[in-house]
Amino acid sequence: MIEIFKTNVQNQIDTNIIIKNVLEYFPDHKVNFDLEDCDKILRIEANEIEPGKIIELVNTLSFDCIKLD
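Given the sequence above, the corresponding C-alpha cells read:
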C-alpha cells in the first residue's frame, strides 16, 4: 500500500526530521519525499498505513500534511 501526502516542507533538513520521526513510530514503513514536486510530496509505503496518524505526527512537527487521493 502507498499513501501520498501534500506538505509544506521546503528543504532536506526538514525532510530528515520528518522521516526520522515517522520511522520511530512506524519502523516498517518506507518513507521518502519529492521536494521537486510542487506539492512537496511525502510518500509512505507499508502493508498497513494509518493516514490520520501520519498527518497528526507531521502536524506536531509544525508542518502541514494533507492526504492526496
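The beta strands are 2-7, 30-34, 41-45, 65-68. Try to locate this feature in the C-alpha cell string yourself.
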